[in-house]
């Protein structure tokens, strides 16, 4: 694929575009800073995306799994109808990290994207929706892709949990860690984005830069600027890694 940008000719070996879905514009803009010059803004029903010169579409999909799923599904449908379906969907943003595995400022790439609170509370504890006999709770990105991205960016690899309510107490953090011992981070959109990608048969990846520890809510300890900088740095290394994966491992 070759696209003309204002700064010159940008080439990429990715045969079709990549959709990056963040929650909010500030996260989208952090990703955009790592990529070639912006080519255009594309309006979608209820949302808009930024199309970069290298064929990456950046979408601020909204906060929470439901809105993220709906907006991502709309973008996937629009792309398919336009004859340029996506090769990959990436859920990206900042989030909480489970200490000590994912300290503030680190980058995490999901080997499992798991919804942590979809199910039922019982007298014996929480039951995920799968144990109730329906649904799914985990999407797994391609192992080869996770490996390539981790090696290229230095990201730690583990489960990223999707929650509808951000963890704000030590008790809830401990409960989540006990149920999901491989969890390194939590966010609010990854599972929703993954559900939309799965419905369209498109591979999915989730990357989070850690802005705060998962646990007691202490806004004074948040390092949002540092996390956004880590997200930009990570995506600066991600593009060539994806080209390598596409060429040799897909």
From TrEMBL:
Function according to Swiss-Prot or TrEMBL: Catalyzes the hydrolysis of futalosine (FL) to dehypoxanthine futalosine (DHFL) and hypoxanthine, a step in the biosynthesis of menaquinone (MK, vitamin K2).
Q: Which GO terms describe its molecular function?
A: hydrolase activity, acting on glycosyl bonds
Quote any Pfam family the record assigns: PNP_UDP_1
The first-level EC class reads hydrolase
Q: What is its EC number?
A: 3.2.2.26
Q: Which UniProt keywords apply?
A: Glycosidase, Hydrolase, Menaquinone biosynthesis
Please identify the protein, giving its name as recorded.
Futalosine hydrolase
Write out the similarity annotation.
Answer: Belongs to the PNP/UDP phosphorylase family. Futalosine hydrolase subfamily.
Kindly give the InterPro entries that the UniProt entry links to this protein: FL_hydrolase_MqnB, Nucleoside_phosphorylase_d, Nucleoside_phosphorylase_sf
Q: Its catalytic activity? A: futalosine + H2O = dehypoxanthine futalosine + hypoxanthine
Q: Which pathway or pathways does this protein act in?
A: Quinol/quinone metabolism; menaquinone biosynthesis
Q: Does the keyword Hydrolase apply?
A: yes
- Origin species, per record, is Streptomyces olivaceoviridis
Q: Where is the Nucleoside phosphorylase domain?
A: 60-219
């Amino acid at each position: 694929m070759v696209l003309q940008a204002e700064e010159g000719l940008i080439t990429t070996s990715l045969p079709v575009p990549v959709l990056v879905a963040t929650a909010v514009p500030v996260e989208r803009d952090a990703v955009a800073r790592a990529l070639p010059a912006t080519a255009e803004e594309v309006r979608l029903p209820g949302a808009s995306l930024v199309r970069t010169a290298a064929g990456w579409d950046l979408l601020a999909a909204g906060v929470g799994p439901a809105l993220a799923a709906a907006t991502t599904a709309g973008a996937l449908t629009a792309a398919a109808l336009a004859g340029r379906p996506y090769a990959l969907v990436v859920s990206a943003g900042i989030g909480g990290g489970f200490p000590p595995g994912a300290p503030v400022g680190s980058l995490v790439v999901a080997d499992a994207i798991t919804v942590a609170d979809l199910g039922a509370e019982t007298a014996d504890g929480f039951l995920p929706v799968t144990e109730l006999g329906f649904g799914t709770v985990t999407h797994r990105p391609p192992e080869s892709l996770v490996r390539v991205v981790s090696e290229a960016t230095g990201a730690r690899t583990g489960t990223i949990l999707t929650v509808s309510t951000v963890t704000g107490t030590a008790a809830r953090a401990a409960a989540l860690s006990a149920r999901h011992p491989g969890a390194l981070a939590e966010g609010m959109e990854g599972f929703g984005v993954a559900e939309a990608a799965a419905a369209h048969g498109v591979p999915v990846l989730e990357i989070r830069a850690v802005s705060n520890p998962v646990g007691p809510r202490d806004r004074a300890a948040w390092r949002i600027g540092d996390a956004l900088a880590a997200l930009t740095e990570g995506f600066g290394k991600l593009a060539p890694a994806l080209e390598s994966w596409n060429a040799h491992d897909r």
